[in-house]
Amino acid sequence: MYNICKYLLMPLLWINITVAGNRWEISGLNIGQIIYWVIIGLAFYVSWKTPYKRYVLFLFVLTIGLRILESFIGGEVLYILRLSVLSIIFIIAGAHIYGNNPKLLHRQLIIFLALSIPIMILQILGTSSFFMGWDADYAHNITILNVDEVGTFKEIAVYPTFMVGLDALHYQIGQGRPVGLLYANNVLSIFVSISVVLNLIFSKASRINLSDIVVTVSAVLVMSKTVFIILIVFYSSSFLFKLPSKRIVAAKLIGLFLIFIILYYFLFPGLFLANFSEEMLKTSFFLRFFDLMTVIGINDIGIIFHDNLVYLGGLYNKEESYSQIGVFLRNKYFLLVLFPLFIFSLIYLNNVKKSGEFFSCEVHIVVLIVCVLTQFAIPFAIAPSFQFIFGLALYPLFKKMWDPMFYSNRLNCIRTNNSYIERI
Fold first, then answer.
1. Distant-in-sequence, close-in-space partners of 55: CB < 8 Å, separation ≥ 6
2. Which of 101, 143, 252, 261 is spaced 20 to 30 A from 213 at the CA atom?
3. Pick from 223, 246, 273: which residue ends a domain?
4. Of 273, 292, 313, which residue is a domain's last?
């Protein structure tokens, strides 16, 4: 049963992202809600298999109690508390499954992206309105898709993009920023970002692997600024500061990325120029920038960047957050979380130190950094799928789960100066 849960949880979470995002129902039953309950049950079962099962049982009972109380009383505090308690169960489950076996997440991401690539290509080409049926990004434009029409497979107009220049292009978000098998491009970009760094860690220098191609093609097709920034930062850092074997890997992946981004430009010149236009870049950057400046109390920032604020026009709403960081800072209870967060950070760093070598926890630290960086672009930390992967990042906190051989084997290989993939 545990092995079934180990392989089934992440695919179920991906399925539920799209099903819940489109609010699909069968005979009045919310499919997303049903899958969500199944996921909670499986996550509880996996967490129960850990040395923390007593805490997990307490958290599970507390979640049920809070849900019952919330149904009678309601209120934001109970809602946030319930989701926070439940998130710990997902984090523990993710840490247990991926903590000693991060390669499993890498393989699952590669399979998921490999299945998504053909769908993304069909969406970019605009072959059929059917492939746009689960794309909730169209709801950003009420004239195309009303919020009430999300998930109804409304007929969406598609336009030629293959070898079409910018002047002749009719830009649609579903074709310029494909969603693949998920319901939103920004959500897909989070998983692509995580796959980029995991593949950098696990890729071998000797040859180009299928995973290298899948990750690079996905990174190009998704056309996400978040993915591009993370890719550039981690590839360049690996090339400049890593062992020679990892520099070769970084150089290989940089070369692949350049090849596929140039190929994309020749096949879809209009989409390429539109996605990298000044207007698109301003929208992506300044929505988050103004949001964070407003949150921290710099209300005069609009005077300095008046032209850009005018350009955004109705796109920018001072009362809305455009990143998870913004959501967190806007919450009136965020100060209460800062001290516990600081304590957990100290415990995390201390456990990393106790693991023997900083680099023995490299995969966990890297995934942690990427998870945090993605939340500057999109509020997604509340999603169980994100929390499940976040468990891998927080694995050093769960010392009772540590496999001594896992760390000792990696340390021995570090001392022999082998590449990281050989250390795993």
1. none
2. 101
3. 273
4. 273
